[in-house]
Amino acid sequence: MASDKPIVLLTTERLRVTQLPPDGAARVVAYFEANRDHLGPVSPTRPAHFYTLAYWRTRLAQDLEDARFDRSLRMVVLPRAEPLSSAPVIANISLTNIVRGPLQAVTLGYGLDHRHEGQGLMTEALRAVCAHAFTTMGLHRIQANHLPENLRSAAVLRRLGFAVEGYARDFLRIDGRWRDHILTSLVAPEGSPTAV
After folding, report:
1. 20 SS3 class
2. Is the C or the N end of the chain the one with fewer CB within 10 Å?
3. Residues 175, 147, 43, 31: what is their CA dihedral angle, to the nearest 10 degrees?
4. Which pTM does this prediction carry?
5. Under a CB-based contact definition with an 8 Å cutoff, are residues 91 and 111 in contact?
6. Are strands 105-112 and 141-146 parallel, antiparallel or unpaired?
7. Nearest C-alpha neighbor of 125 from the set 139, 137, 113, 141
8. Of 58, 78, 46, nearest to 176 (Cα)?
C-alpha cells in the first residue's frame, strides 16, 4: 500500500540522500537562507513565506505524501560523517513530474550549498539518485534542464552521462522573467527494470 512506503535513504561514500520529516524544517530553512543569493537567480520565484518554519513543516509533510503516491520524490543531501538526526542540509534534489505508463520518465532538479561547490558532492549524490530512479523506481528516462550560462550544472550532467537534446526558448520563469534552457536527458542502462 502506498501509505506504507518507507522513507528513502541513499548512502554514498560521503553523503546521505534522504527525505526529511516535518521536524527537519529548521535544517531546510537554514540551507535555503544561507543560499538565498546563490540559488535565487537560478530558481523560480519563491512564495513570500518560503523561508519560514511553518512553510517547510507543511512542505516536508506534503513531500512525504507525494512520494507515497508516486507523484514526486524530493530529498535533501546530508554529510554522512554527521548524525542523520542533526546533520546540516548541504543540497536538495527533486524528482518531479513522474509519468508512468509507456513513458516512465521524471524531471530532475537540484541545488548545492555554495560552501560545498567544487568537491564533486553533487555528482556523487546525483549518481545515487539516478541509480535509485532506474532500479527501485523503475523509471526509464530522467530529464534535466539548465540555464545556458550555468556551466557548473552542465558539467555535472555531462559527467553523469546526460545527453543534450535541445534548446528551449522562454522555457521557465526565473527571477521574474522567462529564461531559455538547455534540455538534457539520461536513459536507463540496457536491462534496467521498468515499472508498468
Report:
1. coil
2. N
3. -130
4. 0.93
5. yes
6. parallel
7. 113
8. 46
Angle at 57 between CA 43 and CA 24, to 5 degrees: 90
Strand 91-99 relative to strand 105-112, pairing: antiparallel
Please choose, from the candidates 152, 156, 149, 142, the residue with its C-alpha nearest in 3D space to the C-alpha of residue 181: 149
Closest CA to 43 of 5, 101, 100, 94: 94
CB 130 within 8 Å of CB 192: no
DSSP classification of residue 188? P
Q: For 42, phi and psi rounded to 5 degrees?
A: -115, 15
Widest Cα–Cα separation across the chain: 45
> What single DSSP character describes residue 104?
-
Q: Which domains does the chain have, with CATH numbers?
A: 9-187 (3.40.630.30)
Output the DSSP codes for 59-92: HHHHHHHHHHTTS-EEEEEEETTS-TTTPPP-EE
Contact 90, 16 (CB under 8 A): no
What single-letter DSSP state applies at residue 163? E
pLDDT digits (tens, 9 = 90+) for 17-70: 999 999 999 999 999 999 999 988 888 888 889 999 999 999 999 999 999 999
